């Protein structure tokens, strides 16, 4: 803000001097000095705005007058509507969260010995370009927990509380005696004591079986007990081999939980040994065997940060990471100007730290907070690079914002008319915020 | 599509990393063929080195625009260097951005068009002709074109009966790459038909590996999947009609193709990461995850064109031994051959520009780049032995053998808004279909709605 105020100042002193000069030459000199700036401003700012406005009333080829058609598209096109909706989310959340965090950082760092070092670290992301930040966060949000740090943390926390199972992809092979039910597998027929049961499954690679897995063997019949084998019925390099019977190199499903179910009630349960064999007591006679879903639970894969639902909040997170530092520095500067006596007085009067912060610091900082929020709002309205880089193609549509839609309409779809209309809309949206900021500035200067 | 994809890839993912890898690739490519280069440098010219006569053009200056980056660009520059050596002209490579037609538009508006541009889509050539930017090929270039190219490749470079484009580079997009070790472990064989493919997928799945890696985060590989199934199942006539939107996407043939596709896309366990995971996987990752992880990669097969080997180069897998390839299996009566390619089009007519087009149409130019790898030429007079390895030779043979039966990538023929915009049109609709493969009718309706809008506006 300080720089903007400085830039606004020179015309002030210059104007009275021009008025003081009565001779035409002085005016000419003034005009001469103003000319380069005016030409540059005209060519680089005024003309493009004017031309965009004109262009937005023409069709895509630029030859035919289209009236308000392009503006009608603004409110009928699905892409633009999503973009508008997302822009509102951005404008509401990104600046407020950044400012709030900045305020917290600024107030807290004031009281820490190494405050400056901390401020430096928080401010550091500002030194990174949006593009680089986008690439960084693309990786942070990567779905694969081995790559994306966000999911690595999330999955780590999740797996501490809920273990994943040993056989996530196991499933019945061809002509299997098992049928899928409620995520587990149930035998088609009932089992009987003295007749060994085969529970073949496929889909688990040998090196992914639990460490205790040994070569599978057919269970021996035992009188009065239900015995059986559960194993990976697939020989590496050969396919299924003998269907429904263990081949020499096939491994048992060590640790598979097996339950005997009668009339919907579990009557007996056991886990398979290293060679896949298991023994159930006589009570399992006449029951069906059930491999519960717990055996086959898929490994938790983390949160889909960049999926359609979370992509916008995720990108806003990246934005906050960058801009909270900016807010912090401005607020810290404002904080330095807050008279200490007021805080001291409040403390002497018995206010708690929270009350001091809530009732004294924040109100005193209100003007600064407003400036920071409004500046960030302008910044957020034109956000493009973060969204363009972080959102994968499949959810770019869901993460769409106006500036991105402008680019897509103008340069990828070849609809410059509509793109110009979006540009005008963006300008219209920025104007009130700009007006607010300029009025503030004026007041500040007068003071 | 290839060119477009490569730019998207580099722009949107780790650009520095990609550049590094591309550099490394270029280095290996150079070292691989270094001996041959030295031979040539020694004055001993290979027999194919002078099948075309070029005029002396000392002092002439040419600009060539293309969207190629990295190793592809470096290799092409070697071809240009050979042209400079033979004619004495100087050639500058102008890196362009996608869509190249918009890039050329601004260049031409500025009065500085490049002499020759490499256009990746037939639609772009048509547009360049309609805008009166493209200049017809001269007699010398035509002679080379007729001699070296099958009718099909000549036709897609022709607008209104006049030949404008020389297809210098081709892509064979009917290939499925697979992890040889996984296939061996599963006892699976290279499939010839769709049914075989499903059987092989089943065997791979039973052995404990997910069969397919589908890069759903990018839309274009999904369109290529669809095109192969559709071309093979519905036949070339229907394919052409659909490409020109003469039949609607609500046609029963489209329904049949999508239903067929859902036999793979609809099985959560057949796709690495399931449908949701696939939609988060980008093309480079889809390849690397298939060829890393030893016996237990994330997937056994990945479908895409010959350029997949560039990404395989980023892994430790060796093309031909660890990473093998088979042609896209026949879904209908014949196996599909879907191709892409870049055509050289003259924008500023001159003796030098014509000479360059002639050179690019000759087997000499293509042979140089073929030896460097990662390149495929539609030129039928390029000796198969010019390709550096057996896999490349197999791909090249398949492309040339298809004669005129190949079809150009459908989404590249479609208007950009439908067939070439991330998160829009066909790309988005097929992504939605991958998310919800049960809803064939809904996908068709959305495709038709977007197609009608895009073809209707004529952009």
TrEMBL record, chain B:
<feature type="signal peptide">
    <location>
        <begin position="1"/>
        <end position="31"/>
    </location>
</feature>
<comment type="similarity">
    <text>Belongs to the bacterial solute-binding protein 1 family.</text>
</comment>
<dbReference type="InterPro" id="IPR050490">
    <property type="entry name" value="Bact_solute-bd_prot1"/>
</dbReference>
<keyword id="KW-0732">Signal</keyword>
<dbReference type="Pfam" id="PF01547">
    <property type="entry name" value="SBP_bac_1"/>
</dbReference>
<protein>
    <submittedName>
        <fullName>Sugar ABC transporter substrate-binding protein</fullName>
    </submittedName>
</protein>
<keyword id="KW-0813">Transport</keyword>
<dbReference type="InterPro" id="IPR006059">
    <property type="entry name" value="SBP"/>
</dbReference>
<feature type="region of interest" description="Disordered">
    <location>
        <begin position="32"/>
        <end position="53"/>
    </location>
</feature>
């Amino acid at each position: 803000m300080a720089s903007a105020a400085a830039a606004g100042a020179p015309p002030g002193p210059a104007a009275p001097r021009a008025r003081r000069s009565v001779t035409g030459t002085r005016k000419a000199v003034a005009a001469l000095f103003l000319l380069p700036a005016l030409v540059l401003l005209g060519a680089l700012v005024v003309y493009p705005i004017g031309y965009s406005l004109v262009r937005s009333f023409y069709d895509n080829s630029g030859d035919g007058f289209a009236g308000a058609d392009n503006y009608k598209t603004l409110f009928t096109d699905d892409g633009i509507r999503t973009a508008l909706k997302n822009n509102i989310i951005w404008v509401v959340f990104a600046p407020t969260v950044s400012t709030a965090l900045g305020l917290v950082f600024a107030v807290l760092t004031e009281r820490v010995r190494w405050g400056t070092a901390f401020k430096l670290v928080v401010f550091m992301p500002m030194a990174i370009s949006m593009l680089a930040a986008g690439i960084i966060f693309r990786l942070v949000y990567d779905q694969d927990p081995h790559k994306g740090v966000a999911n690595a943390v999330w999955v780590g926390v999740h797996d501490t509380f809920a273990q994943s199972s040993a056989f996530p992809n196991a499933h019945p092979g061809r002509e299997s005696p098992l049928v899928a039910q409620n995520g587990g597998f149930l035998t088609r027929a009932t089992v009987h004591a003295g007749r060994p049961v085969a529970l073949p499954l496929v889909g688990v690679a040998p090196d992914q079986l639990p460490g205790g897995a040994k070569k599978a063997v057919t269970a021996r019949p035992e009188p009065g007990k239900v015995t059986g084998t559960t194993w990976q019925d697939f020989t590496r390099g050969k396919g299924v081999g003998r269907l429904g019977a263990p081949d020499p190199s096939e491994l048992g499903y060590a640790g598979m939980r097996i339950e005997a179910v009668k009339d919907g009630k579990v009557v007996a349960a056991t886990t398979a040994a290293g060679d896949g064999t298991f023994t159930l007591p006589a009570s399992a006679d006449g029951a069906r065997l059930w491999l519960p879903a717990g055996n086959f639970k898929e490994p938790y894969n983390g949160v889909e940060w960049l999926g359609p639902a979370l992509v916008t909040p995720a990108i806003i997170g990246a934005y906050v990471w960058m801009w909270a530092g900016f807010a912090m520095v401005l607020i810290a500067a404002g904080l330095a100007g807050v008279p200490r006596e007021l805080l001291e007085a409040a403390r002497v009067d018995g206010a708690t730290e929270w009350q001091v912060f809530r009732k004294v610091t924040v109100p005193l900082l209100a003007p600064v907070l407003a400036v920071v929020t409004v500046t960030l709002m302008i910044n957020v309205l034109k956000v493009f690079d973060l969204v363009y880089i972080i959102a994968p193609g499949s959810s770019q549509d869901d993460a769409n914002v106006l500036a991105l839609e402008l680019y897509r309409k103008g340069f990828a779809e070849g609809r410059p008319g509509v793109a110009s209309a979006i540009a005008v809309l963006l300008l219209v949206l920025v104007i009130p915020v700009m007006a607010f900021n300029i009025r503030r500035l004026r007041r500040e200067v007068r003071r | 599509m290839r060119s477009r994809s490569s730019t998207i890839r580099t722009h949107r993912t780790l650009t520095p990393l990609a550049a590094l890898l591309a550099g490394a690739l270029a280095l290996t490519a150079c070292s691989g063929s270094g001996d041959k280069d030295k031979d040539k440098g020694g004055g001993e010219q290979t027999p194919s080195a002078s099948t075309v006569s070029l005029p002396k053009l000392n002092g002439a200056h040419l600009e060539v625009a293309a969207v190629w980056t990295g190793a592809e660009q470096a290799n092409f520059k070697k071809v240009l260097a050979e042209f400079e050596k033979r004619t004495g002209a100087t050639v500058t490579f102008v890196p362009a951005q996608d869509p190249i037609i918009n890039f050329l538009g601004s260049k031409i508006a500025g009065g500085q068009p490049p002499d020759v541009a490499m256009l990746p889509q037939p639609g772009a050539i048509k547009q360049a002709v309609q805008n009166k930017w493209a200049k017809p090929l001269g007699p010398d270039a035509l002679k080379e074109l007729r001699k070296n190219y099958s009718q099909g490749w000549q036709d897609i470079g022709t607008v209104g009966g006049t030949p404008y484009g020389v297809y210098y580079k081709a892509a064979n997009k009917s290939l499925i790459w697979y992890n040889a070790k996984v296939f061996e472990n599963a006892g699976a064989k290279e499939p010839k038909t769709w049914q075989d493919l499903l059987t092989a997928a089943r065997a791979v799945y039973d052995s404990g590996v997910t069969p397919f890696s589908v890069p759903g985060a990018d839309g274009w590989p999904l369109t290529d999947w669809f095109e192969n199934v559709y071309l093979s199942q519905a036949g070339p006539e229907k394919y052409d009609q659909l490409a020109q939107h003469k039949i609607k996407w609500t046609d029963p043939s489209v329904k049949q193709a999508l239903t067929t596709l859902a036999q793979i896309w609809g099985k959560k366990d057949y796709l690495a990461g399931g449908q949701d995971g696939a939609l988060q996987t980008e093309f480079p990752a889809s390849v690397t995850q298939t060829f890393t992880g030893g016996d237990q990669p994330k997937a056994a097969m990945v479908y895409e064109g010959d350029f997949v080997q560039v990404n395989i180069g980023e892994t430790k897998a060796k093309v031909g031994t660890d990473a093998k390839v088979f042609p896209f299996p026949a879904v209908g009566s014949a196996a599909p051959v879907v191709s892409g390619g870049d055509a050289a089009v003259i924008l500023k007519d001159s003796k030098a520009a014509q000479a360059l087009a002639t050179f690019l149409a000759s087997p000499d130019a293509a042979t140089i780049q073929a030896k460097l790898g990662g390149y495929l030429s539609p030129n039928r007079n390029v000796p198969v032995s010019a390709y550096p390895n057996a896999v490349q030779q197999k791909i090249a043979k398949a492309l040339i053998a298809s004669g005129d039966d190949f079809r150009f990538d459908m989404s590249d023929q479609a208007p950009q808004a439908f067939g070439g915009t991330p998160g829009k049109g066909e790309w988005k609709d097929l992504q939605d279909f991958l998310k919800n493969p049960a809803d064939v009718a809904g996908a068709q309706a959305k495709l038709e709605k977007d197609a009608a809008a895009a073809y209707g506006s004529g952009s």
